[in-house]
Design a protein that fits this description.
alpha+beta; 13 strands; 2 domains; CBS domain Like; Hsp33 domain; six-stranded mixed beta sheet
């Protein structure tokens, strides 16, 4: 089953709805970054939230969702595009904590303070806003973000369900946002009703995003679907450009001491091997040609 975001419009109440299934993306991120269970679970929620927020944007837009905290996790970074490509990283991939009961279940991993920031890349123009974490529950803190920073009536609901021994059994979510003339009472009613429907659907094993929409809002028809996948923009060429920025002296030191190197992408964990010939080419481009054997 492919992960996806599905969108619809509730015409009677002028509310737009996005639902996401991000289970496979979360599992791939866990594998790529070798995430422990708590790190993987919290990052899974961030990936689902990033996909939902990206679904609100126009074409050629990227969303960066960053969480910073004073707990062991320290934070994570999610990069999500309108096209469904996602990537990101966790600052501390090794967090294993015993969950508390109730509202503050993630406090042992997140700590007592922090913030959420959102950066929008609008085709080269950047807009950033941030709010402090108030509850240490991502969906509640995102609702606080929308209320304070964007002043748009919005409700975000996230559900991560364990299935057997699989901590990332089903990762799903829903976002409901009012249009300028949207019915706020209808929005509040959905915010009260949908979490239990979302939980029940995930507990039953999940499925496709269209099935999630049908379970949450029977009779509503999807108007758009975007497949969601873990996809990075890194490449060996970009890795070489990063090395070139260090300057000829540092590259020369690598040549003299190691002969080759590797650059590992922070976002996806891909290791780009840089050979001696690659380093010679970089030095030549920086005006320091080498005697090649």
């Amino acid at each position: 089953m492919a992960d996806a975001v599905v969108r619809t419009l509730l015409n009677e109440s002028n509310l737009k709805v996005s639902v996401v299934v991000a289970t496979q993306v979360a599992r791939e991120a866990r594998t790529r970054h070798a995430l422990a269970s708590a790190s993987a679970s919290l990052f899974a929620q961030g990936l689902a939230a990033g996909a939902l927020m990206a679904s609100l944007q126009k074409e050629e837009t990227r969303i960066n969702l960053q969480l910073e905290c004073d707990g062991p996790l320290r934070g994570y970074f999610v990069d999500a595009s309108v096209s469904g490509a996602m990537r990101g990283y966790v600052k501390n991939p090794n967090v294993e904590v015993e969950l508390a009961e109730g509202q503050f279940q993630w406090r042992a991993a997140l700590g007592n303070s922090g913030f959420i920031s959102v950066l929008r890349d609008m085709g080269g123009e950047y807009y950033r806003s941030a709010v402090e974490l108030t509850t240490m529950q991502l969906q509640d803190d995102l609702n606080h973000y929308f209320r304070v920073s964007e002043q748009i009536a919005t409700r975000v609901m996230l559900q991560l369900t364990h299935l057997g021994d699989e901590n990332l059994g089903v990762m799903a979510g829903v976002l409901v946002q009012a249009l300028p003339d949207g019915d706020l009472k209808a929005l509040d009613a959905l915010a009260a009703a949908l979490p239990e429907r979302l939980r029940a659907w995930c507990d039953a094993g999940g499925g496709e995003a269209e099935a999630l929409l049908a379970a949450l809002l029977p009779g509503e028809v999807p108007i758009a679907r975007t497949d969601v996948r873990f996809e990075c923009t890194c490449s060996k060429e970009r890795a070489l450009n990063t090395l070139a920025a260090f300057g000829a002296d540092e590259i020369q030191e690598i040549v003299d001491t190691m002969g080759s190197t590797a650059v590992t992408c922070q976002f996806c964990g891909t290791k780009h091997e840089i050979t001696l010939v690659d380093l010679w080419d970089l030095l030549e481009g920086l005006g320091r040609p080498q005697l090649r054997n």
